[in-house]
């Protein structure tokens, strides 16, 4: 990496807080920054402190009536509509301000990449990929992923690839750009047959004039490291090589982990680390090195997310952490006070080997059938052979 990477962070981002009993607890962000700091990952890094998004940046992807509802919700009672005031998306104090700050952080990260100040930037508080144009969904009030992409398109970028590795379908981003051939959205997620939001089928390939620019890999429950990585490498590199984005935007949800309480895939922190390294390599190879990394889901707050996203921060900064690295004693003591009856891992690894066998064109395993379903739906639209593993 020739230029320093931008790391977006301010403790004010912890204000995106839907309540102590809500799965999206901001403690996961605090613990990640504490762990990355304790391991020296952020030594000498000047953190980028975000400002609230300019209203125009939110309006690129959300209806003014919805934004007004978000602003009014904390004082308007609970019957506000637009998906607000539900168990998934409860109203909370200063909701608009908190969500706007997340958008501001992701847009600022995009701006720094577009300006050439940095090649890479990361906002782990971002990745709120479910919010739709006129309503909240899936813990997401404003869609910072879509806002950052829209900003890039309005400021000189002509081709942007969005790659979503969260366990849930990246439905809000897909919906925002379904008819836009300038944006390639790729989502690898648990099958909609078994997991919310029930979308992300292989035959969702893009709207008129944008056919082939929506890509969905629907993975069977229980998919483990080797099979997930096989699917990733069987679909993603060939499409990025053909599309040649100017920027790669990634949503790096950690809820694919085997211990995540809200989903049913079976990945390890070691597979997460291998994925982040692969994303860095793909950005270097196909996007001129320009990589905007965002957070996302992840609900095993102490054991998984801090380790996974510390690996993400380290990968973005070219300060890769050896998986065998022990967790610092001070960090473990702090985390143990938050949940004194929960055992904590000892190191930055789950002890798994993230090796995989490349897809060879067969359909013998359930994951191979998922690979073929996606390739046969999308690859011909890019002039690629869906049955040839060399494409």
From TrEMBL:
Entry keyword annotation includes Transcription: no
Please list the residue ranges annotated as the Histone deacetylase domain.
Answer: 22-315
Q: In which pathway does it act?
A: Ketone degradation; acetoin degradation
Please give the coiled-coil regions recorded for this protein. Answer: none
Share an example GO biological-process annotation for this protein: acetoin catabolic process
The family this protein is said to belong to: Belongs to the histone deacetylase family.
How is this protein named in the record?
A: Acetoin utilization protein AcuC
Species source reads: Solihabitans fulvus
């Amino acid at each position: 990496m020739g230029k320093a990477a931008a790391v977006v962070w301010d403790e004010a981002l912890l204000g995106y807080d839907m309540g102590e009993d809500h799965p999206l607890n901001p403690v996961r962000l605090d613990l990640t920054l504490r762990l990355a700091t304790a391991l020296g990952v952020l030594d000498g890094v000047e953190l980028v402190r975000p400002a609230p998004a300019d209203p125009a940046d939110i309006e690129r992807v959300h209806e003014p009536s919805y934004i007004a509802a978000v602003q009014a919700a904390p004082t308007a009672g609970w019957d506000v509509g637009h998906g607000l005031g539900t168990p998934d998306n409860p109203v909370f104090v200063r909701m608009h301000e908190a969500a706007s700050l997340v958008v501001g952080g992701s847009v600022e990260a995009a701006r720094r990449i577009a300006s050439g100040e940095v090649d890479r930037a990361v906002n782990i508080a971002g990745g709120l990929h479910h919010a739709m144009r006129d309503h909240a969904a899936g813990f997401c009030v404003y869609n910072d992923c879509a806002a950052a992409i829209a900003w890039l398109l309005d400021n000189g970028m002509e081709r942007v690839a969005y790659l979503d590795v969260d366990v849930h379908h990246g439905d809000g981003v897909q919906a925002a750009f379904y008819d836009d051939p300038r944006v390639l959205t790729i989502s690898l997620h648990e099958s909609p047959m078994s997991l919310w939001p029930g979308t992300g089928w292989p035959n969702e390939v893009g709207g008129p004039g944008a056919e082939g620019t929506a890509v969905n890999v629907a993975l069977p429950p229980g998919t483990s490291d080797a099979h997930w990585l096989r699917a990733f490498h069987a679909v993603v590199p060939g499409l990025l090589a053909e599309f040649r984005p100017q920027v790669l935007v990634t949503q790096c949800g950690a809820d694919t982990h085997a211990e995540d309480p809200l989903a049913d895939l079976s990945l390890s922190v070691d597979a997460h680390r291998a994925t982040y390294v692969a994303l860095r390599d793909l950005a270097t190879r196909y996007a001129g090195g320009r990589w905007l990394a965002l957070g996302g889901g992840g609900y095993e707050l102490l054991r998984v997310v801090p380790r996974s996203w510390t690996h993400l921060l380290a990968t973005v900064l070219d300060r890769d952490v050896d998986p065998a690295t022990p967790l610092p004693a001070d960090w473990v003591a702090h985390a143990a006070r938050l949940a004194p009856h929960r055992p904590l891992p000892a190191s930055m690894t789950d002890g798994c080997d993230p090796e995989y066998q490349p897809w060879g064109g067969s359909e013998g395993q359930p994951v191979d059938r998922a690979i073929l379903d996606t390739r046969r739906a999308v690859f011909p639209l890019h002039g690629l052979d869906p049955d040839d593993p060399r494409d």
